[in-house]
Amino acid sequence: MFRLRFGFIIIAMVLSVFGARLVQLQGLDPNAYAAMAAAEGIVKVELPATRGAIVDRNGVELASSIDGMMIVGDPQMTRAHAAEIATRLADEVGVDYFTVLDRLRRQDTRFQYLARRVPATLATRVVRELTAEGYKGLSTRRDPMRDYPADDVAASLIGFIGEDEALAGFERTFDEQLSGVDGSTTYQVGAGNRIPLGENTTVNPVNGQDLVLTIDRDLQFYAQRVLAERVREVKGESGTVIVMDTRSGEILAAADYPTFDANDPLGSPKEDLGVRSASETYEPGSVQKVLTFASLIDAGKITPRTRLEVPESLRRNGHTVRDHWSHGDIRLTAAGALAKSSNIGTILAAEELGHEELYDYLSKFGLGQHTDLGIRGETRGVLPAPETWSAIRHATIAFGQGLSVNAFQMTAAINAIANDGVLVSPSLIQGKAVTDSGNEVGTDTTTRTRVVSEDAARQTAEMMELVTDAEDGIAKVTNIPGYRVAGKTGTAQRVGKDCGCYDGTFTVSFGGFAPADDARFTVYVMIQNPAKGYGGGSAAGPVFKKVMTHLLSKYAVPPTGTPDPALPVEW
Amino acid sequence: MSSPLPLSRVRVQRIAESAVERARLSVVPRLDPHAPRVPFVTLVSLLLVAGVVGLLLFNTTMQQNAFANTALEKQARELSDRQQGLQMELDELRNPQRVAEKAQELGMVPSLNPAFINLSDGTILGNPVPAKAEDGIDVRPPEAKKPAELDPAPLVIKVPAQPEASADTDPASPDRDAAAGSNDSSSNDRGDRSSQ
Fold this sequence. Notes:
The complex is a heterodimer of chains A (571) and B (196). Chain A has 571 residues and is an alpha+beta fold. Helix content of chain A is 34%, strand content 22%. Chain B has 196 residues and is mainly alpha-helical. Chain B has a domain at 41-130. Chain B is 54% helix and 2% strand. Chain B has helices spanning 4-15, 17-23, 38-94, 96-105, 173-181, 185-194; strands at 116-117, 124-125. In chain B, a hairpin with a 6-residue loop joins strand 1 and strand 2. The interface between A and B is large, with 59 and 46 residues.
């Protein structure tokens, strides 16, 4: 009996110790203990989502994600051989010798970044070799990197990403689609290996989706080089070339100069990192006459053969308007006024339309409106409201001064003439994508609006063919033998950055399409502030011709073989 | 349900009292105490050993698999790194810049006169004209203009001119010499532009 009782007492004491411990563990601070238990032998690994690539229309990667590595070092172990290690890293990985030497010798730390974003194969090979040679204290870690295989090709459109976030261009605008969602996995390890049947939870990462552009990389490359060469030749400030597929509105190339190397954006000034063709507005000049004449023909006010008596000068509201060449009283047809780019002829014809009517036409051509390409910081340009127009305003707007546009708007407007009078909204994204401001853009959202009748568009195109005529055209250089090419030059006075007035510099441009009677491509070239003596045809024309011939042979567009319309210029 | 039990017991006693008295005295036949125990013990031990060994083997295999898994994952990672490295090399080789430069080295220029041969009847569409050397374009990438902070203006130190030499010296020339002397070609360009 005594033994039994004694046994019970012992058991009761042991159980109460257990009970007290239970209260301590579960009652007082259960979370801290749970965390301690979890930390013991449990590893959590981030599973980074792979960033989607940006590819061109043929699937060629313009921006791709690759598994990079960082090389990190423990200065306590590397100090002894810092010079040798730094030499090797500087030679093989291309880091700065002195910076790395300094880091390898730090006293107060056991962790230093030596090289970031190194291709994985290179990083592992270098570290393996160095370790094998007896230089301890180096290791590699995952460090995803973004590579732009074509360097500066389409760099302004694609943009770039910084250490942690997308900083510019499509990388930033479509970051949500491209970046995806990171996942993670948690598991128990023993001696460096995953314990089978151990605790294990995995949240799979959702990889980013590719962004497909309408750009053709090789064409974009060619356009950029041709433009860069020409802008330097004519000593211009900057320039733009835009190539648009006439029927679909897809932008095949959009080149800006100067631009930057997407792999080294910090090597270029900040003002070169954007898309000039969308963010910069300028007065279009005489290229605008194409839109004016198309509107006039559509409204039934003129035909290409309408006879105009063009005086030496014209006074409107106390301002005198002259032509770019001096002449006495001459007799030009409407086609001749466009072909010779006569301001006076254009004004005389345009006065057949009221302020409201001309405004409506230009507005339907897309001037003063967003193109919704998905480019950050696109400006709308300025098309003044018709109530504010005076006679001189009406006159200057008719020949392309006193309103401002961006290069994409102008390309789309000329393309409407090429596309039988139907304005196709331009797009840079295949399919559709949502910008960071919630807009849906892309070829799926393309809109088509009739601006002028098919007949008016055809007649305007025939008038534009006179400009590129090999013998009498004012831009002979743009003639492509065998093909019918429609085009128009533009030389506009430019508003200076400082004074807000015309400062004596010019914006020269050339827009056109080929084949004129069955257009496939519209090419628009604009160069800011070329040296004195260069006009739209002489400065921008050669770029137009080189890009257009490249297009016609690359996409195998044969000549249509139809005869030239041969409209009369004078009467 | 306990209340009916005494009743039934009483009833049984009442019905077969003599038989119960007799039965109480009979001897229960004994079971054979020498039944062989060995087979049973062997069976249990075998099951035990088999279970333990099986579990051990199972665990070992799992561990082996885990090792193999880790090794193979590492190999896969290395191979995919290698594949990416090669892909990058390939991209570099396919880069239009490189192709264009190679073509230029070979003396090739883009044609400015597109023409086509219709293979079905051999007719020529367009005006074929041999390309000329001057049709070529400079395919080298334009040298990037550096941001102001990476491209400081050349430091100009004006040395007071000697009285006899100063008579025919252009005042701008020391500046221009300083610009030309700096090793940076982009600052040269800018120097040229500003002088226009």
